[in-house]
Amino acid sequence: MVVMEQPDTVLITGASAGIGAAYADRFARRGHPVILVARHHARLEALAERFSREYHVKTEVLPADLTLPTERARIEQRLAADESIGILVNNAGVEDGAPLTQTSPDAVEAILELNVTAPSRLIAAMLPRLLARGHGSIINIGSILALAPELFDGAYAASKSYLLTYSQTLHKEVSDQGIRVQCVLPGVTRTAIWNASGALADIPERMIMEVAEMVDAALAGYDQGELITIPSLPDIEEWRSLDETRRRLLPELSRYVAADRYKSDIPEDA
């Protein structure tokens, strides 16, 4: 008798709408049990009912505001203890395009709490268990603004730059221990956040990707084993060339002597 292995359960944050809901749909369609995390309980329940009906997979709802330490701790504890959870999708995030010169310290802290602290803590909670069992996946949803901070004001791009470099470092540390890491860098995507801000009205249609298109491309990159996935980039060699240029700089970035351009010419008779 052949025993079919149960697919890993996938925990998805920010799962009530947009990119998170699309990820939940795609993983449920693939036969994975899913755990949906977001603040909007009613939306999560509606998604859970649909996934159970259409895909016949176990779906669980865990309402939580990941900016609140007590609520976030419940999700951390679940990730640390539940052996069935093998895939984490860090999608929850907030964008705020207000210029740094017009942003309060509390507003900046709120962005960092959700975009930086929450994914870092969730990964840290889950990682020891994944390493012990020798397999699992972590998917971090970043932004192309990690590569182009000039295109957006405020702290948002910086928070997504953190996710990019965090993912690269994590991959270096765990890839040879059976843990897969992917960082997805979407461009402008037609989500509720963008619609609510009214920003889409000022962006050409050719630059706006639909959510389903983005998530399907990101999952194709996941299936191909990509570390960095840029869904809208036509030629992946452009990213590889940029990354290779960065790597060539490494031997020159820390040396015992400052570069000549920083040396003042001192007259011989001084």
Automatic annotation (TrEMBL):
Transmembrane region(s): none
Keyword Oxidoreductase: yes
Annotated Ketoreductase domain residues: 8-199
InterPro entries on file: KR_dom, NAD(P)-bd_dom_sf, Sc_DH/Rdtase_CS, SDR_fam
Pfam families from the UniProt entry: adh_short (PF00106)
UniProt KW keywords: Oxidoreductase
Any one GO MF annotation of this record: oxidoreductase activity
GO CC field: membrane
SMART domains: PKS_KR
Family: Belongs to the short-chain dehydrogenases/reductases (SDR) family.
Protein name as it appears in the record: SDR family oxidoreductase
The species this protein was found in: Dyella telluris
Phylogenetic lineage: Bacteria, Pseudomonadati, Pseudomonadota, Gammaproteobacteria, Lysobacterales
